[in-house]
Write a structure and sequence with these properties.
The protein has 181 residues and is mostly helical. It contains nine helices and two strands. β1 and β2 form a beta hairpin.
């Protein structure tokens, strides 16, 4: 789950099946009842019909949690992490970063760092479109060491400079759930 809308869909499906939940959060659901295999299959099917997936594999769940921490950190938080990204992710998920990084790379085919960069550039595109912040402010907000660093990564990922991107009439952005997949 990568959005509030996804959480609403999951809550609706749980209610339809008469299930009571404690938590429905990005990437996890805590259901009060023990559910039968039949109910589990119904839930799995209903979620699939809505474009979501019920995950049983512990590694897949961990990848989803890593993804959600990164998305939340870059797209939904104005708070600057007090530590570097690797420490932040490790602390949030209570796992060694090397372990998380190895699993993520093996399953996703890109490193956590590459995934973060792709999301930061997508967020930069969004902020450029809003036209409320200068490039300097955007680079600070996205924790870049300099405007030049942001500009270099932006061009490497998009093929355009940030200023050229702003001038385009057809400014292509990707839905958050499609980034890095």
């Amino acid at each position: 789950m990568v959005s509030t809308r996804c959480k609403m869909v999951v809550k609706d499906e749980l209610k339809k099946l008469g299930l009571h939940f404690i938590v429905v959060d990005l990437g996890e659901v805590d259901i009060m009842e023990n559910i039968s295999n039949d109910v589990r299959e119904k839930l799995k099917s209903a979620l699939y019909d809505s474009g979501l997936e019920l995950m049983d594999d512990k590694k897949a769940v961990l990848i989803e949690k890593i993804t959600n921490v990164i998305i939340d950190m870059i797209h939904h938080s104005d708070e600057v992490p007090k530590t570097n990204y690797s420490d932040y992710i490790s602390e949030k998920l209570q796992h060694d970063y090397t372990y998380l990084s190895n699993i993520f790379s093996a399953i996703k085919g890109i490193t956590i760092q590459q995934f973060i960069i792709i999301h930061k550039i997508e967020r930069a595109k969004e902020l450029l479109l809003y036209d409320e912040l200068s490039l300097t402010e955007i680079s600070y907000k996205l924790h870049y060491s300099s405007v030049a660093h942001l500009s270099n990564q932006f061009k490497k990922i998009t093929g355009l400079t940030p200023s050229h991107f702003k001038q385009l009439k057809d400014r292509r952005r990707s839905p958050i759930e499609d980034i890095g997949n």
